[in-house]
Design brief:
Length: about 500
């Protein structure tokens, strides 16, 4: 990772005692520290509702690191002690204006004592209903003012709950922060392998010429998870898979897969192209929703002989919940490159494997000379594997050695791990560092967020207003409701069920 233009600064994490901060944010900052990517003068201030001092907070951070950052800790105990010297804590009730004034005084104090310019990143690792409250409190105390150093806010997902609420939230944030101060995080964009999709496409001469409606038959994007909702039932039941995964992560991946090549590699140029894809998604009529979208919810089942709870039995979930834990949908991008090429997107919890991948199905050769001799259905695929076993694979037919002309599909795979001489950076490391540097390329811009809500809203409204649209149930450890295969126009087509390791079918 890069360390250019990184100025001395303060990182304030609101919600510092929460799950995200413990599991991802603090370990990411520590990793940046280990890699000497943090500025010379730097402090992290944990801002949380619990009453504790910095000694207690440092102790908590130390414990957290031993639980969630075990690999970084090995052999680095002393460095952890050094890092902890830059960790501070301030009790802040997010709803109390008074507490923000005392946070402001605290920041003044630290910046004077440690001679740190008041360049500040505020990370909102808090429940979404508090985003505008915290932003407003920062503004009231002048903590957004850039006279004495820049100020940036990182806002976690979900950004809004619907199109209208996203616009409303955006307005509220702009009431004190300019667009270039607002960083809407989507951790999928921080994944090395999502960025590598751009490199695959735009740094090679041979992918791009076939990356269009002339050669591509259809594109599948799958993000399957093995786990259920665990202890996040309360949140998830108000969200569902469409809001939780598709509105943000998977539509962003779609945008990167389908975008036009930007003229230069900078934040505006790239985001100008990705937003065009989202704006070109063909709008669905409510009456079409059940033809284009299949939703499902997991019921009990078994994984390795262990019984699994049904979604409705999970903690925090309503016993008659209609929230979807699985969505499969078909959409079209109405532009010259993709006219009439179907894109299939699918995500779900309690599926047999944890895999995220994009599969480009190329059109078959115009004349199938060896069709009768193929041992499997001939297929030409480009597979962009995001997780796990990240990499790129190509599937094609080859002659089986020996007499005759028997053809079999084979697979040529590049594994990203072969390229990395050290650990591949976690998405949060990359994204936090980018915000510290002021690079918003990998953050979602307001127009993109709005465009994706616009698409998703039609589906959500149809589900809400039309009780006839079915919610299909699927057993844990299966690939979701079989009805998801009905999205394909042709009977012989079905979802490619991915495996943890690249493997052909
Ligand atoms: C989060 C969702 O944004 O992404 C979770 O809220 C989901 O429900 C997670 O499990 C998936 O991320 P990853 O990086 O594990 O694929």
């Amino acid at each position: 990772m890069k360390k250019n233009n990184i100025e001395n600064q303060v990182l304030v994490i609101f919600g510092s005692n929460g799950d995200l901060a413990k599991r991802k944010l603090v370990p990411a900052v520590f990793q940046l520290f280990l890699e000497k990517l943090l500025p010379e003068r730097f402090v992290v201030i944990g801002a949380g509702s619990q009453d504790k001092d910095e000694v207690a907070f440092r102790f908590d951070v130390k414990e957290t690191m031993h639980t969630f950052a075990t690999k970084s800790i090995v052999g680095n105990e002393e460095k952890l002690e050094d890092f902890l010297q830059s960790v501070y804590y301030k009790k802040v009730n997010n709803q109390s204006e008074e507490d923000f004034f005392s946070l402001s005084t605290y920041i003044d104090l630290l910046s004077d004592k440690l001679q740190i310019t008041k360049n500040i990143v505020y990370y909102f690792s808090i429940p979404p209903f508090l985003y505008d409250v915290v932003a407003a409190n920062l503004v009231k105390c002048g903590l957004n003012v850039e006279e004495d150093g820049w100020k940036r806010i990182i806002v976690e997902k979900p950004f809004g709950y619907s199109y209208d609420s996203a616009i409303e939230l955006d307005k509220k944030l702009h009431n004190g922060f300019n667009e270039d101060q607002i960083y809407r995080i989507d951790h999928y964009l921080g994944k090395e392998t999502v960025q590598n999709i751009m490199v695959t496409r735009f740094s090679n001469g041979f992918f791009e010429p076939i990356w269009n409606r002339k050669y591509v038959d259809r594109i599948e994007i799958t993000a399957s998870e093995k786990i259920g909702v665990g202890n996040r039932g309360g949140y998830y039941d108000t969200s569902g898979a469409l809001r939780d995964m598709i509105q943000n992560h998977l539509l962003q991946v779609l945008a990167v897969v389908a975008m036009e090549p930007p003229v230069v590699f900078d934040s505006d140029a790239i985001r100008n192209e990705t937003v065009k894809v989202l704006q070109a998604i063909r709008p669905m009529r409510s009456s079409e929703v059940s033809n284009y979208v299949v939703r499902g919810q997991y019921i009990s089942g078994e994984v390795n002989n262990e019984p699994q709870k049904a979604y409705r039995q999970e903690k925090g979930v309503a016993p008659n919940s209609k929230t979807e834990t699985f969505v499969a949908l078909k959409l079209f991008i109405d532009n010259w490159r993709w006219g009439d090429v179907p894109f299939y997107i699918r995500t779900g919890k309690q599926l047999p494997d944890r895999v995220t991948e994009v599969v480009i199905h190329l059109k078959p050769a115009p004349h199938q000379l060896f069709k009768q001799l193929c041992l499997t259905e001939p297929s030409n695929l480009i597979i962009l594997r995001i997780h796990p076993d990240a990499g790129v694979a190509v599937d094609f037919g080859m002659k089986i050695p020996g007499a005759g002309f028997k053809v079999q599909n084979v697979n040529m795979a590049f594994h990203y791990s072969d390229l990395a001489d050290k650990k591949i950076a976690e998405a949060y490391e990359r994204l936090i560092l980018d915000c510290m540097i002021g690079d918003s390329t990998l953050y979602a811009r307001a127009d993109a967020v709005k465009a994706s809500w616009k698409f998703v809203d039609t589906i959500l409204n149809a589900w809400k207003n039309d009780p006839e649209i079915p919610l299909y149930f699927y057993e844990c450890n299966t690939w979701g409701p079989k009805e998801s295969n009905n999205l394909f126009d042709e009977k012989f087509m079905k979802w490619r069920n991915p495996f943890s390791k690249f493997k052909t079918e």
